[in-house]
């Protein structure tokens, strides 16, 4: 477990490990266009193991690359950086950071959960939080002000919360509370018909975008979370779909995933259809893995007399030869995974070339991504 302390000395912001060296010191007001001064803002629990940060990002942390950390603990009031209470999921930690450091914000703040990987991270970045940090195009954050770190649409896009809804939806339990909350937090602004962005409250924001509002606005947001009778879960879910409005004044923020990957992380497919092709292979290998797992369960006596293939009851191993089938599945999975890694490597190569990268973005823009009759394509949900 890494224990951190935060000091403010002569306007400098220090993060120190009690068991290790100084992680970094910077003056947040010093502009560096090559490596914009960036702070990773993590919402964590006291029980979380944060060693992945130094294990996976040690080469990036420190003064030379201007990458630093502010780790908030939501359930330990004695932690150097902590929230008033544990409510609102990550939102209270994020708002506390903005309030605490409003006058000395770095050029970019990256708001994250405290996990090294998560289902809602990006598939083409191996579901890895550190890979998202490592490959994030900080210039894009400065240019646009706000970047949702998740490229895939589902859940959250393209048409998610309807603030004027009157019927309860068990998949969007916060929806019926949006209208009243909006009146509390944005009393002079009209209620939008839709609120949408990719889940799950991980994003990067420029200091300029944060300072669109005075610090008193963020204090209002935090006080509302502390005082509302709504639950921890509901308040967190509400803010999950408010962040894009807070920083951009946009109710719907659903960028094309291909452009998100390419412009945001340098993972670019010169043929825009190559993105869909990649995820077709992902779906294929996922299905093969499910079948392989079913054969293993059969061998362990957990499936009665049959294995499962393609989501249904499959062949009798005695008749079709389970060992041979398992060997074939393992070979197919290995081959597809090698092909996926090859395509992923090619996508990074394209992203490293400014001309090819720009061409890939333009080609993606030229394609209609969503067919209104069929809904969003399957690969926006991976």
TrEMBL record:
InterPro entries: DUF3431
Taxonomic superkingdom: Eukaryota
Designated name of the protein: Uncharacterized protein
